Amino acid sequence: MIHVEGLTRYYGGHAAIRGLSFEIQRGEVIGFLGLNGAGKTTTLKILGCVLLPTSGRAVVDGHDVVSHPHEVRQRIGFLPDTPPLYDEMGVGEFLAFVARLRGVPSREVSARVTEAEEKTGLRDVDDAPISSLSHGYRQRVGVAQALVHRPALLLLDEPGSGLDPRQMVEMRTLIQGLRGAEHTVLVSSHLLPEISQTCDRLLVIKDGELVAQGTEAELGQRLGSGGFIEVEVRGERERVLAALAGVGPVHVMGEAEGVVTLRVEAPADLRPGVARAVVGAGLELLRLDRGTEKLESLFLRLTRGGDEAAP
Amino acid sequence: MMRTMLIARRELAAWLRTFQGYIIIAMVLAVDGLLFNAFALGGVSKRSSEVLSLFFQFSSGTTMVASVFISMRLLAEERQAGTLLLLYSSPVKDHEIVLGKFLSALAFLALMTLATVFMPLLVMVHGKLSLGHIAAGYLGLLLLGSASLAIGTFGSALARNQVLAAVLSGCMLVALLTCWLLARITEQPLSDVFSALALWNQHFQPFQAGVVHVRDIVYYLSVTYVALFAATRVLEARRWR
């Protein structure tokens, strides 16, 4: 659906993005992750045909964004970081305007507006002037305008920006609802839970360069911390450590009332081996959990250092 | 063309929904009415056609000033509010955006100009006037307004905010208006060129007197076309920034 190759954009002497290359398949929901100023918005604007790359190539659904922007614009729905809304219009009226602008046949406009309003939970404010809406509803109208013409590609730039926790959950549900539909979705954010829970795959960008891509688990594995096992064992600390020495690197997390809590670094699922080692040493196994590194710590590791990860 | 009309309809509806449009109409009517009473009707007794001619003269001034205020928001406001991205990311051509915006402004100006028609009608009721004179004067006002709005649209495409757009458009209009002064201090053939370029002096006065020349119509339409073409090129360049 999207093929990006060596995409570079300079603002004066400063490179906002540099040599960006990635592929996105049809139907995927992709999280575009990076700190502020990393180059997410620049990339989305180029894909949305509102910004010219300095060099490189971006192809959307077989059409180059520079040589065939009109064809690309027919296939995309773009929500910029500030939703582009006409405050004096009503919600339904605005969505009908956008649908017509993007080529929806007149006889289908009403149905498409209803469909977009239902997907984004705007039915009850169809007649309300946009100027009277709360920030959360304005964001929803922004998403609705991006999808009212059923585009093949949805580009959502920080859709959760400025939302309160309840609105965030609603926005997450909304984006999750787009999964499996006719859309491919590229959603940028620095709100990690939003990305973690809604996207199939992540693209992590730092200082204009792609530093990693893959699923959350893949990123963890690539960084050598794909998973760990937490174990609670009743017994003496030395005996417990000796029993688990052959399984993998072990860190003692705590010890209280004869119960030792440990963490075994384990990219693969080593729970059977850990269980056998503990029981085989005559110790009591109280708890055995497999965990993976949370997206937040992965994100911080990816965007902090310079040599920890490669695309 | 469908998208042009869509943009024009939305823009015109925005004019009619906000106070800004009504304030401009009210100001124009107030100033036109004041000048009409003080100068056209006042003073020594005049023939009806002279009163009408004076009315069109005052109205041409208010039309140009109003055009600056009407056109300053067309593109600069969208850029300020971020809504231009909606148009930029949609399958709309640059000339469709410019033409849609311009047509909405022209329609609004036409409504505003139509609202002044009671003044010539008053003269007509109390004196003797030719309908042709009234029609020629209003055609002149619309053509002058069209050229001024197109220049304003160009200024609005250039500027990052509405104030700057108004200043730029105002400067361009004054430059075109004062071409006749340059014509007076330059030698031929340059003086002929400046005289022909002047926005008001040579081209509006015939309309004001009830005379329609094709060359004046062609002049105003040419200024409109050139300014809109320039606005389109600016938008093309800005769309990708």
TrEMBL record, chain A:
Any Pfam family hit: ABC_tran
Keyword Lipid metabolism: no
Entry annotated with the keyword Isomerase: no
GO molecular function, one term: ATP hydrolysis activity
PROSITE patterns noted in UniProt: ABC_TRANSPORTER_2 (PS50893)
Sequence ranges assigned to domain ABC transporter in this UniProt record: 2-232
Keywords: ATP-binding, Nucleotide-binding, Transport
PANTHER family: ABC TRANSPORTER, ATP-BINDING PROTEIN
Family, as annotated: Belongs to the ABC transporter superfamily.
Protein name listed in UniProt: ABC transporter ATP-binding protein
Species this protein is from: Archangium violaceum Cb vi76
